[in-house]
Every structure is written in structure tokens, then in C-alpha cells.
Write a structure and sequence with these properties.
Elements (H helix, E strand, L loop, with lengths): L9 E9 L5 H11 L3 E13 L2 E7 L2 H14 L2 E6 L5 H13 L5 E3 L14 H11 L5 E2 L3 H8 L8 H11 L4 E4 L10 E7 L5 E7 L9 H14 L4 H17 L16
Parallel strand pairs: 1-2, 1-4, 4-5, 5-6, 6-7
Antiparallel strand pairs: 2-3, 7-8, 8-9
């Protein structure tokens, strides 16, 4: 029997290109490959860097981003999408407008506004635009601990921080929220993530804390894995659980690449 055009699950990452391959679009595409979905890409920026750090970056013109969206929509059947690094107001507005214009399936938003060490990545105006324009479009939002603190305004020392933060983010418009656990305490042995689903139900996932410098791209990989599972028809809960399990394996069975802060192992 002849297969129909575009019957294979297709996804897209809307993110920055990371030259060393450890994070950003490259980590997303590696994850899509491992998860057996076809990965397309919409480049928003190009970053020059390696395991020692980021040394230069160039944003794509918004006209180019618009054309990327149009070309994919004209030819492919995107069943799920995710966003990564969106560096400024113009790019955030452009991506939000295109996501409203084209049907790309469920949207997973990896905020990429604060690093896992607490450093802010967006200027105030871009941050405000992100909250107003993109969060309401999110079918799944995956903030790290510090992003959840910033986005929710909940005190990080509150014993119910993750639950309260997730409910606050749902009030901002996101349907399903995964508030990732804190990863900057080297004395910890476990990490607990909290998930609030659209129907109001919730659950926690606790796994081991891996003491390694090879963790670049974990957030990108997690959100990409969720996107891939959604494209294949999984429920949000099952997509998140599968993605969490995959990322833990990628960190545990590491790969010796880069001298300092290296990538995780997408072939694990």
C-alpha cells in the first residue's frame, strides 16, 4: 500500500542554533531523532560557543523567521511544536503571531528566560512580552526552578512553592505546567518535579540528582521529548513522564564530549 504524504509524525523546534551541539536547536533535533519523529527547525538566532561558554550570538531577521514559518506550513504537516531561545521583543512577537497564524499542533514552551543557576537571559521588555504573548499559547510550559520563581512571584522558600507556582502559571494562560526541581545544591541526592494538568489534577516525579558537569541541554531535551511524544499521540501526562525518564537516562549514561560543561548523551 502506498503511504500518504506527511503521514510520518513531524515536529518543529523554534529556537536558537547552538554551535557546539549541546543545547538549543541541536539538542532538540537529536532528541527528535532518538524519539523517532521527523524534526524541522525554525532558527531564531545563532550562538557561537563551546563547553567553556557562549562567545557571540546573532539574531535572525524577523522577515527570515516569517519565511521559515510559511515554508514549513506550505509543505509539511507539523503535529507538535516547541519554542526555545527567543532573544528579544521583535522575535517574541513574530513567533507568537506566526503560531496564531499557522496550525502546528500542541505547543510546548521551554521559557529560556533564566539559567538553571539563576541568571536572567531576557531584558525586562522582552520578558514582559513573553509573559503576555507566549505563555497563553502554551499547551505545556516547562520552567526551571528559577524561571518558576520569576514567572509566578511565589517565594522560593515556601514549602508549597512548586504547587503554588504551577497554579499561578496556569492563571497566566498555560494549560499544563511542569515546574522542574532545583538543581544547584550539590549536597542534594534527589530532584522532584511537579506537574499540574489542565484538568486540575497533579503529580510529582522524583529522581536522582546526578553530580556531573555534563548537563547542557537538559531543558531543551526535556521539552523536545515532550513535543515528540505529543506528536505521536501520547497524553500530556504520559508525554511528560516519558520525557523525564529519557532525560534521566541521557544524564546518567553520559558522553565524554567537551572539556568543561558538556552535553548529555542523547543515545542513552
Amino acid at each position: 500500500m502506498t503511504k500518504m504524504i506527511n503521514d510520518y509524525p513531524q515536529v518543529v523546534t523554534i529556537a536558537g542554533s547552538d554551535s557546539d551541539g549541546s543545547a538549543g536547536m541541536q539538542a532538540d533535533l537529536l532528541t527528535f531523532f532518538a524519539k523517532k519523529v521527523y524534526g524541522a527547525s525554525i532558527v531564531t538566532a545563532c550562538v557561537a560557543g563551546n563547553s567553556f561558554g557562549i562567545h557571540d550570538a546573532v539574531n535572525m531577521p524577523t522577515s527570515f523567521i516569517n519565511q521559515e514559518f510559511k515554508d514549513l506550513s506550505d509543505d509539511f504537516k507539523i503535529k507538535a511544536a516547541k519554542t526555545g531561545m527567543l532573544a528579544d521583543v521583535e522575535i517574541i512577537n513574530t513567533v507568537a503571531d506566526n503560531l496564531k497564524k499557522y496550525v502546528f499542533g500542541p505547543l510546548v514552551i521551554d521559557p529560556v528566560i533564566i539559567t538553571k543557576h539563576g541568571d536572567m537571559l531576557l531584558e525586562n521588555e522582552a520578558y514582559s512580552t513573553f509573559v503576555k504573548k507566549l505563555i497563553p499559547l502554551a499547551d505545556v510550559l516547562t520552567p526551571n526552578f528559577f524561571e518558576a520563581v520569576k514567572l509566578s512571584g511565589i517565594n522560593e522558600n515556601d514549602p508549597d512553592f512548586q504547587s503554588k507556582a504551577a497554579h499561578k502559571l496556569q492563571q497566566l494562560g498555560a494549560k499544563n505546567i511542569m515546574v522542574k526541581g532545583r538543581h544547584d545544591d550539590f549536597s542534594q541526592t534527589e530532584v522532584t518535579d511537579y506537574v499540574l494538568l489542565e484538568d486540575g489534577s497533579s503529580f510529582e516525579m522524583t529522581g536522582p540528582y546526578f553530580d556531573t558537569t555534563h548537563k547542557n541541554g537538559t531543558g531543551d531535551t526535556l521539552s523536545a521529548a515532550i513535543t515528540a511524544e505529543l506528536a505521536k499521540g501520547a497524553s500530556v501526562e504520559n508525554a511528560i513522564r516519558s520525557a523525564k525518564d529519557y532525560v534521566d537516562k541521557c544524564i546518567k549514561d553520559g558522553i565524554n564530549v567537551g572539556h568543561q560543561f558538556g552535553p548529555i548523551n542523547h543515545w542513552a
